[in-house]
C-alpha cells in the first residue's frame, strides 16, 4: 500500500518547506527516510504541488432533508472531498431542522462512507426560530458539541444566555452568526455610497456591531464559549479582539467570499453576489485582513449555501441570498495568496478551526495535496454541486486539489 509522493512541498502555519519526498503507508504520511527500503506500490510526481494537514470547513449547508434538489448529502460529500476538506461542520438549517436524535442519526448514516468527516451543528432552538429550546443535553449524548441556529442569529438575549449556560455542562461551543434582524430588515446589500447610488435598501454595519457587543456582554455575565461566524465589519473585529485580550472564550471566522468581493461589485445586480452578511467596503475588508493577520479571526469558511436557478434568476431584491463556495475555495485562496502568505492561509483552515472545535492537533493521517497553479474551467461539466450560484461559474479559475488523505482513504482527484 506504500505510495511515494516525490518533490512535495509541505506547509504548516509557520513556513513552506522545500520540496521533499514523502511516504504514505496506508494510514499517514511521513518524510521518506534515507534508509527506506520497503516496496513502493506507486510513485507520484508532486512537482509544483503543496500539501498541508487536512482542511476544515466550519460552515457549510446541505439542503437535505427538505430541498435535495439544491444540494443532497451525497453531492455535498463528494464536493467536500474534491474541494480538499477532511472535516466539515454542517449547519442545522434543513427541513426539518437538525434538532432531534432522528436527524442526527440520519446525517451520520448518510455520511458514514464519506472521505470527509461530518461534524454536526445542532439547532439550539426548535426550527432555528430563536424561541423554544431543543433538548441540548440529550443531543450532546448523541455526540454533538456544537449548537446554534446556523443561518439565523440567536438574537433573543435570554435564549442566548441560557444556551451558554447549558453548554457549560459539557464544554460545548455556541456557533452564532450575530446580527440584529430588525436593523437588517428589507436590506439587500451593504448600506453605503454604492447602495445609495443604485437605489438599493442597505444593511448597515451597526446591525452586526451591536449584536456582537451585546452577545459579548452576555458572555461576560454567563460564561461559556462563543464562536462568531462570518464577521464582516471592522467594529466587530475590534470587539472580538478586545474580548480575546480580556480572556473571554471567544473565537471568530470570516467567509472567504467576504475577502474576495466588495459592495461595488454589485453594481451589475448579479444576484449570485447577494449574500448575508453583505459584501462591505474597502475599509471593512482591510479590517478583516488585519484581523486574520493578528489572530483575531481564527478561521476562513466556505459558507457554502446552494440555491437553485429559480431562487437566483429574478429581480435582485426578490432573489434568495447565498453562494456556493466549496470547489472555488482553493481558487479563492490562490487569489488571497497575493496578499496573505500560504502559512497564514493554511493555518486558518487547519489549526485555527481545530482550536475553535476544541480538538487536539491532527496527526498526519489527514492531508490535503493541491496544485496552486493549475487552471481549470468551472462550468456545468466540472461543477459537482447541484446548484450553480457563484459569480465565477463559466470562467477559468486557478488552483486545484489533487489528493485527499484521511486515514486509510487515499483519494486521487
Mean pLDDT: 96
Shape: globular
Which stretches are poorly predicted, pLDDT < 50 over at least 5 residues?
none
Q: What level of helicity do the residues show?
A: 25-40%
Proportion of residues in extended strands: 15-25%
Any idea of the CATH topology? Answer: TIM Barrel
- Structural class based on helices, strands and sheet pairing: alpha/beta
CATH architecture, by name, is: Alpha-Beta Barrel
Q: Largest sheet at a glance?
A: 8 strands, mixed
CATH superfamily: Metal-dependent hydrolases
**SS field, number of helical segments:** 12
Q: Class, according to the CATH hierarchy?
A: Alpha Beta
**Whole-number count of domains:** 1
SSE order and pairing:
Layout: E1 3-10, E2 20-24, E3 29-31, E4 42-45, E5 50-53, E6 55-60, H1 73-82, E7 85-90, H2 101-111, E8 117-122, H3 136-140, E9 146-147, H4 157-167, E10 173-176, E11 189-190, H5 193-198, E12 202-203, H6 206-222, E13 226-228, H7 234-246, E14 250-255, H8 282-293, E15 299-301, H9 309-312, H10 329-336, H11 342-347, H12 351-357, E16 366-378, E17 395-406, E18 409-412
Parallel strand pairs: 1-4, 1-5, 6-7, 7-8, 8-9, 9-10, 10-13, 11-12, 13-14, 14-15
Antiparallel strand pairs: 1-2, 2-3, 5-16, 16-17, 17-18
Structure notes:
The radius of gyration is 21 Å and the shape is globular. α4 crosses α6 and α6 runs parallel beside α7. The protein has twelve helices and 18 strands. Strands 1, 2, 3, 4, 5, 16, 17 and 18 form an eight-stranded mixed β-sheet that branches. β2 and β3 form a beta hairpin. The mean pLDDT is 96. The protein has a single domain, classed as Metal-dependent hydrolases (TIM Barrel, Alpha-Beta Barrel). The two termini are 18 Å apart. Helices cover 27% and strands 23% of the residues.
Amino acid at each position: 500500500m506504500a505510495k511515494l509522493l516525490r518533490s512535495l512541498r509541505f506547509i504548516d502555519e509557520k513556513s513552506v518547506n522545500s520540496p521533499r519526498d514523502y511516504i504514505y503507508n496506508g494510514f499517514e504520511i511521513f518524510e521518506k527516510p534515507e534508509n527506506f527500503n520497503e516496496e513502493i506500490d506507486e510513485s507520484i510526481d508532486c512537482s509544483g504541488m503543496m500539501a498541508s494537514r487536512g482542511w476544515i470547513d466550519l460552515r457549510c449547508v446541505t439542503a437535505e432533508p427538505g430541498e435535495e434538489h439544491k444540494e443532497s448529502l451525497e453531492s455535498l460529500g463528494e464536493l467536500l472531498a474534491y474541494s480538499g476538506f477532511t472535516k466539515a461542520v454542517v449547519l442545522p438549517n434543513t427541513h426539518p431542522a437538525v434538532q432531534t436524535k432522528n436527524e442526527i442519526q440520519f446525517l451520520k448514516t448518510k455520511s458514514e462512507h464519506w472521505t470527509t468527516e461530518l461534524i454536526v451543528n445542532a439547532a439550539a432552538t426548535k426550527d432555528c426560530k430563536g424561541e423554544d429550546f431543543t433538548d441540548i443535553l440529550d443531543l450532546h449524548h448523541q455526540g454533538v458539541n456544537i449548537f446554534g441556529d446556523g443561518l439565523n442569529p440567536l438574537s433573543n438575549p435570554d435564549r442566548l444566555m441560557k444556551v451558554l449556560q447549558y453548554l457549560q455542562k459539557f464544554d460545548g461551543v455556541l456557533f452564532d452568526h450575530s446580527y440584529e434582524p430588525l436593523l437588517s430588515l428589507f436590506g439587500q446589500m451593504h448600506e453605503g455610497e454604492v447602495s445609495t447610488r443604485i437605489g438599493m435598501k442597505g444593511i448597515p454595519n451597526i446591525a452586526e456591531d451591536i449584536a456582537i457587543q451585546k452577545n459579548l456582554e452576555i458572555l461576560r455575565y454567563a460564561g461559556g464559549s462563543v464562536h462568531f461566524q462570518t464577521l464582516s465589519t471592522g467594529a466587530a473585529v475590534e470587539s472580538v479582539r478586545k474580548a480575546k485580550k480580556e480572556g473571554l472564550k471567544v473565537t471568530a471566522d470570516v467567509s472567504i467570499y467576504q475577502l474576495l468581493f466588495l459592495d461595488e461589485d454589485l453594481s451589475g445586480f448579479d444576484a449570485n453576489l447577494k449574500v448575508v452578511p453583505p459584501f462591505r467596503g474597502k475599509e471593512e475588508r482591510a479590517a478583516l485582513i488585519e484581523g486574520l493577520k493578528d489572530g483575531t479571526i481564527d478561521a476562513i469558511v466556505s459558507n457554502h449555501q446552494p440555491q437553485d436557478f429559480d431562487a437566483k434568476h429574478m429581480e435582485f431584491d426578490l432573489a434568495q441570498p447565498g453562494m456556493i463556495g466549496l470547489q472555488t475555495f482553493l481558487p479563492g485562496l490562490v487569489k488571497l495568496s497575493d496578499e496573505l502568505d500560504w502559512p497564514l492561509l493554511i493555518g486558518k483552515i487547519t489549526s485555527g478551526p481545530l482550536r475553535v472545535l476544541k480538538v487536539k492537533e491532527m496527526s498526519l493521517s489527514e492531508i490535503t495535496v493541491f496544485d496552486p497553479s493549475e487552471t481549470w474551467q468551472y462550468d456545468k461539466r466540472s461543477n459537482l454541486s447541484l446548484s450553480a450560484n457563484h459569480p465565477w461559474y463559466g470562467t477559468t479559475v486557478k488552483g486545484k486539489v489533487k489528493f485527499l488523505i484521511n486515514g486509510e482513504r487515499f483519494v486521487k482527484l
